[in-house]
Design goal:
FAD/NAD(P)-binding domain; binds NADP nicotinamide-adenine-dinucleotide phosphate; 2 domains; globular; single chain; alpha/beta
């Protein structure tokens, strides 16, 4: 490693995405006195997930006092698990408070990012170009809607849309509505739809374990007390964090009291379903937490209503009139809601990227998506991914995860500013070693206990942090520059793959 020089320089940083993690990165840079950054946002407004998802019943099943930036806690949360609109308002408020607007460029989807001569050269879809010393992806994990490959899907005469593309112009009152899917989105939307639909059908391919989730509101007095006593507010945040991490972190292990507790709670919830036939249809044939746990107090009461039916016969096709089942039965519908999830992973959201010597991101991930310590990639110098592969996902607060990652990136930027290097990326052999350990541990978790889920990659390996939240913070506590290689001062646009070094750059 080169000896640090006394030169100090301010890097030009480009952040892709103005959702929760992109805003956070911007705030961290501002706190460090770095104003030379741009947030390129593909849409016309900020908010990421909370901008895109507006379906009825949307809320966050991570407690709001924990699902908040630790440095900007909100004493005003209205409920234990607040709704999507309130969460979006929170992020907008934080962006305004930290004056991020001058840095955000809307309707700028990055199309290409090429690393050339120690800098990232970016091109947006509308042809604008930019150059950055440090590139940060804050594109999220679950963003690209998965439209199911069901025959005849384009032939439906009524309204059809994905939960993340809700068409609020469509009248729902008195309509025959079908919801395909039983993930968190599909489950959350059933109760409100059951209040307006004349008939509601939920098409279930796989039953879900559903954890009870009481969601009491906070009184005005409670909010005022937290407003006046910031220390108590902080205590709330940490209390929820500790409780949540203890439960989620422990519950992913195949044995342990947390698993037993979650299993019992889910079973207790299921037993609230009165009709034994319906209860059996709703009973999953795999262990709780194998898929991302769904939480709701409202779903079972709603699915038992007279105007609601759970359909478990497989779908054959969609026709002009509705959904035809493999049994031949046609369920006539006016509206079809696709609660069919997302193509998971940061790889689905990234632009076309070329690292050192023209190495593309597809080539880098040809054997499966991975990362160095959840946020960087060999041969892609000065590039970081917030919520990247192997970060804790699922039943964790992604805000807390992104805070840990941005702290780490800021340490890297501090070294850059000292002049320790111009461009560095993690070493291949260190990355492989770390990933081998992660993969081995992930294979021992409940995620591999016999179900299909978006946690698993194409090889059937979970791409998620298999240990506790505390261990994740420990993992990223120190910047280990000895685990990085310098990028060459100049690099050619392309090079034969065979000529690439197997190690480092
Ligand atoms: P999801 O969990 O991936 O669920 C998709 C559902 O659609 C599954 O039930 C799946 O069945 C079904 N499906 C997919 N293709 C189908 C087809 N061709 N025919 C029939 N059924 C089909 O998606 P999601 O509900 O949008 O949730 C995704 C993630 O977003 C969650 O796991 C969670 O992390 C996050 N989320 C969080 C919250 C929150 O409150 N924090 C709320 C919503 C979403 P199979 O199970 O058989 O594949």
């Amino acid at each position: 490693m080169a000896v640090a020089t006394s030169i100090t320089r301010s890097p030009k940083v480009c952040i892709m995405g103005a959702g929760m993690s992109g805003l956070l990165m911007g705030i961290r840079l501002k706190e460090a006195g770095i104003d030379s950054f741009t947030i390129l946002e593909k849409a016309a407004s900020l908010g990421g997930t909370w901008r895109e998802n507006t379906y009825p019943g949307l809320s966050c099943d991570v407690p709001s006092h924990y699902y908040s930036y630790s440095f900007d806690l909100n004493p005003q949360w209205s409920r234990t698990f607040s709704g999507g609109a309130e969460i979006l308002e929170y992020f907008k408020g934080v962006a305004e408070k930290y004056n991020l607007s001058p840095h955000i460029k809307f309707n700028k989807k990055v199309k290409n990012a090429k690393f050339l001569n120690e800098q990232w050269h970016l091109e947006t879809e509308d042809g604008e170009t930019d150059v950055a010393d440090i590139l940060v992806s804050a594109c999220g994990i679950l963003h690209t809607p998965k439209i199911p490959d069901i025959a005849g899907i384009d032939s439906f005469n009524g309204a059809l849309f994905h939960t993340s593309q809700w068409d609020h112009n469509v009248e729902l009152k008195g309509q025959r509505i079908g919801v395909i899917g039983t993930g968190s989105s599909g489950i959350q939307t059933i109760a409100p739809l059951s209040n307006v639909a004349s008939q509601l059908y939920q098409f279930q391919r796989t039953a879900q374990w559903i954890m009870p989730l009481p969601n009491p509101g906070y009184s005005r007095i409670h909010q005022q007390i937290l407003q006046r006593l910031p220390l108590l507010n902080r205590l709330y945040h940490h209390g929820f964090r500790i409780g949540f991490e203890l439960l989620s972190g422990g519950a992913i292990k195949k044995a342990g009291w947390q698993r037993k507790l979650v299993n019992r709670a889910c079973l207790y919830n299921l037993n609230s379903v009165k009709d034994p036939a319906l209860r059996e249809k709703l009973r999953p044939n795999y262990q709780a937490l194998c898929k991302r746990l769904v939480m709701s107090n409202e779903y079972y009461p709603a699915i038992q209503k007279e105007n609601v039916a759970l359909v478990t016969d497989p779908i054959d096709c969609i026709t002009a009139e509705g959904v035809r089942l493999k049994t031949g039965e046609l369920i006539e519908l006016d509206v079809i809601v696709l609660a069919t999830g997302f193509y998971p992973g940061v790889d689905k959201q990234l632009p076309h990227m070329e690292g050192v010597n023209g190495m593309t991101i597809e080539e880098a991930w040809s054997n499966g998506v991975d990362s160095y310590r959840s946020l960087a990639l060999p041969r892609f110098p000065n590039f970081f991914m917030l919520l990247g592969p192997y970060c804790p996902i699922g039943n964790f607060s992604v805000i807390s995860v992104a805070e840990t990652q941005t702290d780490y990136i800021m340490k890297f930027i501090a070294e850059y500013m000292k002049g320790s290097f111009k461009a560095m990326s993690p070493k291949v052999e260190i990355t492989n070693q770390l990933n081998d350990q992660l993969k081995a541990a992930a294979r021992t978790t409940v995620w591999t206990s016999g179900c299909q889920s978006w946690y698993l990659d194409r090889n059937g390996d979970p791409i998620s942090w298999p240990w506790s939240g505390r261990q994740f913070r420990q993992h990223l506590k120190e910047l280990r520059l000895e685990e990085f290689d310098f990028a060459p001062a100049t690099s050619t646009e392309t090079e034969e793959p065979s000529k690439r070094s197997a190690v480092g750059l």
